[in-house]
Amino acid sequence: NMFEPLKETVDLLSTYGHEMPEEIHLQLHDLPEHWNSTKKLCLLVKQNVAPLQANEANTILKKCQ
Fold it and tell me: How many domains, the chain?
């Protein structure tokens, strides 16, 4: 959804004779897939880091007590 306004803007510009390079069109086509991959990677990293965060939180809690 967040890339649709960009596509609409490029289409509007082309309506008024301002053509974008083919590279821009390819990027707009590929960006949603790359964004989804990045979000999946973020979730995976968050899952992998969760035990380390919990351990560190326990260490800090023990130091405070």
Answer: 1
